[in-house]
């Protein structure tokens, strides 16, 4: 335990260094927790970067966090080609202490942006709610609601339970049949997978194919990608006429 964290033995003291109310340029001392969600390709990361840009232009200072970005790097990246460095959140990161350490260095924090928030633990989502309530920070989370089985991610479920605002991203993603796509199907060799690890970070692109270490150990190349489907075609596993294409695989 360092001198900086000499109060960490008390779990209720994680926000003891909260700046005094009213230090946010006269704005009301009210924070909010917002969750923007949608399927792959709907523009969640682009929206996260746009919100950060808008706040920064007004002189506000933010912290950008990410968990398992598709690029494999500590950044928030959009499929449109824009990106910005972010702090990678690990499984045991205490998000309250992360902000508190910034205050200890004399840095001002007005807002927090979290991309790939579905991969947060329920406890980390509670940390974000505490930052909004007790530190009056605006917290914006972006992520996918359901996993490849159509079940809520634990982090997304807790965000649905605690967030002040829930906003589906309005950019419509279509299934191959033309109906709105809601489900992120995990596809291997033209087949929709129904079982496996919940966290398997892959992409929908087709230019690059990477193989997992387990596949190399078994001398078998495994190619995995994701495809957004409507409910009907997700249920029956129908990938449409382009089902033979492969995508990018990146294991975490």
TrEMBL record:
Catalysis performed (reactions): thymidine + ATP = dTMP + ADP + H(+)
Keywords: ATP-binding, DNA synthesis, Kinase, Nucleotide-binding, Transferase
GO annotation (BP), single: thymidine metabolic process
GO CC annotation terms, alphabetical: cytosol
Any Pfam family: TK
GO molecular-function terms, A-Z: ATP binding; thymidine kinase activity
EC numbers on record: 2.7.1.21
First-tier enzyme category under EC: transferase
Record has Ion transport as a keyword: no
InterPro entries: P-loop_NTPase, Thymidine_kinase
NCBIfam families noted in UniProt: PRK04296.1-2
Family: Belongs to the thymidine kinase family.
Protein name per Swiss-Prot or TrEMBL: Thymidine kinase
Species per Swiss-Prot/TrEMBL record: Amycolatopsis suaedae
